[in-house]
Specification:
Layout: H1 3-16, H2 19-28, E1 32-37, H3 42-55, E2 57-58, E3 73-80, H4 89-95, E4 100-103, H5 123-130, H6 134-143, H7 159-165, E5 170-173, H8 186-204, E6 210-212, H9 220-229, E7 233-239, E8 251-255, H10 262-268, H11 272-282
Parallel strand pairs: 1-3, 1-8, 2-3, 3-4, 4-5, 6-7, 7-8
Keywords: Signal
Protein name: Polysaccharide deacetylase
GO biological process, one term: carbohydrate metabolic process
């Protein structure tokens, strides 16, 4: 049985046994689930949002840690600012949902390419590169012919697309070049967190107060820099729901696969599929995403 079949079978079990409904009643309750997407297709997101609005209230990210009203809540976030996100605008408008899209300041409104899209990239090789010290990762990318400063195949949202989406989308910060912050030295880490905020605020002409850790990797160092830079929240990839007691610099989330079917989406809202993946890779039961 292949991986896709196993995923589908698990999702079917979760839904048919009513685990998703029990999870909403016992764990989600009046807390907030922060959903994490990357580059979903409009038809998929349309289906997800239609279902989501039948089971919870959809709120802006800034309301995540505010007291609830007795109903489950969800905030929709999308990482990286891929150029395909522009096609999602009609879906947001249709469902009256204001998502947060976390932008890499040097991969949007520019001709550069997100580094994991370099020619010949494979999932296994990208995962290996993530684990390297940042200087070594950049050196290896250079051997593949990739430079994060020069490219002729832009993969991020354009300035015009961002301007069109601004009335309907909350754009926030996801570093400059999307390195794994815990693999950066102090100066690199500070520049990625502080300079990206300045660059995006200049592009957007609005304050940026929220941050998403690339790959969900962070330590106390990153939190200290974020606080000093004036951010109000930071989203991790740790599984769980949020309430007024959640550390705003360690917001939990539900990771959603961009191509999830309706049944898989309902299952992923419980956190169980990703929890099992984290257990397999991180060998712990905390729900914390694997850290490099």
């Amino acid at each position: 049985m292949n991986k896709a079949t196993l995923k589908s079978a698990l999702a079917q079990c979760i839904v048919r046994l009513g685990v998703d409904r029990v999870t909403r009643a016992l764990l989600w309750r009046d807390r907030t689930a922060v959903l994490v997407y990357h580059d979903p297709k409009p038809a998929v997101l349309d289906q997800h949002l239609a279902f989501l609005k039948t089971i919870c209230d959809v709120v802006p990210l800034g309301n995540v840690t505010k007291p609830g009203n007795g109903r489950p809540r969800a905030a929709v976030t999308i990482d990286d600012g891929n150029i395909g996100n522009a096609a999602l605008l009609p879906v947001f408008v249709k469902h009256h949902v204001r998502p947060t899209i976390f932008l890499c300041s040097r991969f949007v409104a520019a001709s550069t390419m997100h580094w994991w899209l370099y020619p010949g990239a494979t999932p296994q090789e990208v995962e290996r590169l993530k684990r390297l010290p940042n200087s070594e990762r950049l050196s290896e990318l250079a051997r593949y012919g990739y430079s994060q400063h020069h490219a002729d195949q832009p993969s991020g949202l354009t300035a015009d697309q961002i301007e069109t989406m601004k009335p309907y989308v909350d754009f926030q910060v996801h570093t400059r070049f999307h390195p794994i912050l815990t693999r950066c030295d102090d100066n690199e880490c500070r520049a990625e967190i502080v300079d990206s905020k300045k660059e995006l605020e200049e592009l957007l002409s609005t304050p940026c107060e929220h941050f998403a850790y690339p790959n969900g990797n962070y330590t106390r160092r990153e939190i200290q820099i974020l606080r000093a830079a004036g951010y109000k929240t930071a989203r991790t990839c740790n599984l769980g729901w949020n309430d007024c007691h959640t550390d705003p610099y360690q917001l939990k989330c539900m990771v959603i696969e961009d191509d999830a079917t309706a049944v898989c989406f309902a299952a992923q809202l419980t956190g169980i599929p990703v929890f099992l993946r984290y257990v397999r890779h991180a060998r712990n039961l905390s729900g914390r995403s694997p850290q490099f």
